[in-house]
Amino acid sequence: MGFYFNPNIHPLKEYLRRADSVNKAAEVLGIRVIRGDREYDPEKFLRQMVFREEQRCSLCYQSRLERTRNMALKGGFAFFTTTLLFSKRQKHDLVKSAGESLGTKKSVFLYEDFRQGWHEGRETADEMGLYRQNYCGCIYSEFERFRSELG
């Protein structure tokens, strides 16, 4: 079971492009996915981050994993985890800390360092024709990733 919840993604077209790839992958892998599209609210995300930009990754991980944990509890799943643990570009220590702080006896955060499969995963994504993003997703990371294009 998958849960697509990314209220941080900017712009909307990027959000939809990533959601489309999730749907394609789920279809190929035979995984059911719940999408949190009704909760996609970049304005709310920005209000939560303003004047706390230095802590934005930690706050973002915390809110996304909290929502994932809540879905796991609601669905009766004993474990929850995140694809953030696959990325070499995410702050692994913060993801792990956030997940472990949210785990409960009824739904434990499953930590595993999935980065060792990163190259293979990229190849598989290419074979499946999946879109692979080139920045975290939030407006802050988009700016950091592409600011050199300003000249």
Q: Into which percentage range does the β-strand content fall?
A: 5-15%
Structural class determined from secondary elements: mainly alpha
Biggest sheet record = 2 strands, parallel
Give the ordered list of helices and strands: EHEHHEHEHH
Provide a count of the helices. Answer: 6
Sheet with most strands: strand arrangement: 1-2
Oligomer: single chain
Radius of gyration: 15 Å
Helix content: 40-55%
Number of strands: 4
Low-confidence stretches: none
Instruction: Write down the domain tally.
Output: 1
Nearest-integer average pLDDT: 96
Overall shape: it is globular
Distance between the termini: 44 Å
Please describe what this structure looks like:
Helices cover 50% and strands 7% of the residues. By secondary structure, the protein is mostly helical. The chain has one domain (2-111, 126-150). It has a two-stranded parallel sheet. A two-stranded parallel ribbon has the order 3-4. Strand 3, helix 4 and strand 4 (108-109) form a beta-alpha-beta unit. Helix 3 crosses helix 4 (92-102). The model has no long low-confidence stretch (mean pLDDT 96).
